[in-house]
UniProtKB/TrEMBL annotation:
Domain PepSY: 142-198
Keyword check for Signal: yes
Keyword set, alphabetical order: Signal
Pfam assignment, any one: PepSY
Region (Disordered): 24-57
Signal peptide: 1-17
UniProt biased composition (Low complexity): 30-54
InterPro entries, alphabetized: PepSY
Protein name in UniProt: PepSY domain-containing protein
Origin species: Enterococcus canintestini
Length: 202
């Protein structure tokens, strides 16, 4: 009888220890899953914040890689086309990019949001036989961020737009700034960033 009682107690102790260990393992797995979820959420939030940067006046500031990212996407979508213009414009706290280009038969326009996501891609018939003359060689010019930096080094203000295009055979950046309700437009040499002209709207 004593042996039976002793064996029963021993069996109960082993069963209790096993249950306790299993409970601890489950708690550990739950904690690990929670940590992983938190990390993923933080990374997503950081990514969204980086594409919605604004200056001290609440005007959108483009992320540094936006110029290269959107141009690459345009060239991948329209492999035979040349780029004829690139324009970034502040749109509330976000901003957007518009890229235009041409090939022998079509004119294209692609629009991207502040993160580089495609918003629209349209085309129409191109009847310009000299379409290649309008090409902007984007690999031979300063980037959007560099153009903005050089413009603000010369003139105080928030940048509201920046457009890259060829004018009279010369590729230029046209950068518009707003300072104390006054609009200033700077024209920069797109290759070196030299200020070519400054126009103040009274």
């Amino acid at each position: 009888m004593k042996k039976l009682i002793l064996m029963t107690i021993l069996g109960s102790s082993l069963l209790l220890a096993a249950c306790q260990q299993n409970s601890e393992n489950q708690n550990g797995d739950t904690a690990q899953t929670t940590n992983t979820t938190t990390t993923t959420t933080t990374a997503t939030t950081t990514s969204e914040t980086s594409s919605k940067a604004t200056d001290q006046n609440g005007i959108a500031v483009p992320k540094a890689e936006l110029f290269d990212e959107t141009i690459t996407k345009f060239q991948s979508a329209h492999t035979e086309a040349v780029i004829t213009s690139f324009k970034w414009e502040a749109q509330g706290p976000n901003g957007q990019v518009e890229i235009e280009g041409k090939d022998s038969s079509q004119e294209y326009q692609m629009i991207f949001d502040a993160s580089g996501k495609l918003l629209g891609d349209t085309s129409e018939v191109n009847d310009d036989k000299n379409w290649q003359e309008d090409e902007v060689k984007t690999d031979a010019v300063i980037s959007l961020s560099d153009a903005i930096e050089k413009a603000q080094a010369d003139t105080e203000g928030s940048v509201t737009s920046a457009e890259l295009e060829k004018d009279d055979g010369v590729t230029k950046w046209e950068v518009k700034l707003l300072h104390t309700n006054q609009e200033i437009e700077l024209t920069l040499d797109a290759q070196g960033g030299k200020i070519l002209n400054k126009d103040v709207d009274d």
